[in-house]
Amino acid sequence: MALPHNAGVWATVQWLAARHLPALPVAPAQDPYRYPRIVAAKPQRGIYDHVECHWQDGQLRPNPLFTGKNPSYLDGHGIPHLVFHHHFQNRLPTQQELRQWFVHPQTGVGSLGGHQGLAWIDFDTKGFESPDACDQAIVQWLDQHPRLKDTFTERTHSGGWRFAVKLQTSPGFTNFALTPGGEHVGEVLGAGRFTVLAPTIGPSGNPYLSFQRVEPVEIENLSEIGLFSSSSRQVEQRPIDYQPRLPLPPLRTVTGQGAIHLADLVTARVRDLLDGQDLYQDESMSLVAAARELYGSENWAFANGVPLVGDRAEALIHRVGDAFGYDDDKLRRCLALVNPDTCQPASVYRGNEAALWKRVRRLDRGVFEARCPTSTQVEIAKQIEAYRRLSAPSSNPSDLQNSTLIQLRDWYRIARAMDAPESTLESIKTIGQRVAEGKPMPRKYRELMQQQVQSYWQQVDTVIQQAGGILENVGQHSSATGTAFEGRTYRIESPFDGSLQISAQHRGTLLLVEADSIQTCRLGKPDFDQFARFVQRLSPQSCWDRPLELV
User: Fold this and answer.
1) Cross-strand partners of 36
2) Helix, strand or coil, per DSSP, at residue 347
């Protein structure tokens, strides 16, 4: 491979590659007037393709597509291009990709967390009263944990600090504090999170500086080096002398032959509670959550004629109480606010009763066919057929040999997904006809196509990151299948193989990410808006106040 123009950047690329870490490019911040972040159309509301703006220095300025901190690169002609870093969560860049990315001397370099167990610890000066206060806190932190004086260390362009460590245990949080429940002072950039590295020039015009590029030290968990979640929701409230109780014997269930065990009908999260896990870091709250779901699932089964076998809700709730060491009196006090007659499963509350019928179908096909309403059976059959089609190999249309026509086809598809006005779709068709006749595509349309396509995939990438955050915060974990979250409209699933799937009622699979590529994508502007609003609501307080329903 020919040595790129920026030897310092290439040295970082080589350092990362030697440790099997992904080296990704970072283009300098670009003129937002030339490369704005484009918001897709909402013609039904009278809103057409437009650009998000913000106030700066007394002027209204467009939000940039290239921020100087997101994965991107300058080609040999200085034209910027986005790089979608989710492609590299499970693989390293190829030599061809590296040659393409780092040809321009102004392209910087960054990497992802998660590979080889690596996490980037990012201290932000905004979390302190001043840059000097940040530096003083770092000195004290390193004195308390001297091992970190020998780990990978850099200074960010804004005056903050970045350290790299290898974690044996996933932290389970991103925003951290230096005391339990303290003020947010930085972020832990783990799996799938991008970070910029030296000697990249940051948006401020200052470079990222390498203090010592050495092997990251290995630690058990973040609390070992004095880093804690800044979310009060995740703060451990138990007494210092708390001792976990011995695990319960496995819950044995017998489902089939015309009847279903209640413990098999509930969600994976409730099954974890039945195994004695305190998922909420508050035993009383965990017990109440289990009781509501067990009573609700039992009520639903009775209402729909689903035969049950084995322990019922009352006995299973006592099992959870036994796991927490509760006597009958304490159990009654915890359950005083639970009305067994009015409880219903979370899936029904969110308007997705089909999720329960899918469980019934998986557990006992005979019960499903005998008791499930015909309309629901048809809906589930359509979803299953959609999943089967996903596994079939895709083929490219043979009549689209010309690369420009292929790009126009993708542009047209994206424009339809974003509810573009009919006039825009007709314009793309006209351009395609001219190109098919051998006429060149006008430059202004080529630039417009590039901007809109890049904007769309950037929003898809945002949804992927938002989906990961939703699973991290409110997903239901299962030791057998991975993590999932089921809302009123959307379902997000992430099995242990690292894939990600987003589906919606009556629409089937909207997004499927497997290995290093997006296999299916049918997301549109309404989906982007719904995910953005949901993430805004996704706060520690909202999780306790009311059920979160994605719709």
Assistant:
1) 64
2) helix
DSSP structure string for 37-95? -EEPPBGGGTB-SEE-EEEETTEEEEPBS--SSSBEEE-TTS-EEE--GGGGSSSPPPH
Q: Are 248 and 319 spatial neighbours (Cβ–Cβ below 8 Å)?
A: yes
pLDDT tens track for 385-402: 654 553 344 444 333 335
Predicted TM-score (pTM) of this structure = 0.45
SS (H, E, C) 381-435: HHHHHHHHHHHCCCCCCCCCCCHHHHHHHHHHHHHHHCCCCHHHHHHHHHHHHHH
Handedness of CA 253, 259, 263, 266 (dihedral sign): positive
DSSP element (H, E) containing 142: helix 131-144
pLDDT digits (tens, 9 = 90+) for 105-114: 999 999 988 8
Q: 320 or 26: which carries more pLDDT confidence?
A: 26
The amino acid present at 350, given as its one-letter code, is R
Which amino acid belongs to residue 132?
D
**Contacts with 371 (C-beta within 8 Å, 6 or more apart), sequence order:** 304, 305, 306, 360
Report in angstroms the alpha-carbon separations of 522 from 335, 390, 415, 509.
44, 12, 12, 8
Residue 267 is predicted with a pLDDT of 78
3-state secondary structure of 279: coil
Q: Helix, strand, coil % (nearest 5) of the chain? A: 40, 20, 40
Question: What ranges do the domains of the chain cover?
Answer: 7-233, 260-389, 396-441, 445-551
At 168, the amino acid letter reads Q
Cβ–Cβ contacts within 10 Å for residue 541, how many?
Answer: 9
CB 390 within 8 A of CB 292: no
Question: Are the CB atoms for 345 and 295 separated by under 8 Å?
Answer: no
Which residues, 6 or more positions from 546, have their beta carbon under 8 angstroms from its beta carbon? none
What DSSP designation does 441 have? P
CA gap 323, 112 in Å, rounded: 40
Concatenating the DSSP letter of every residue in 31-42 gives -TTTSB-EEPPB
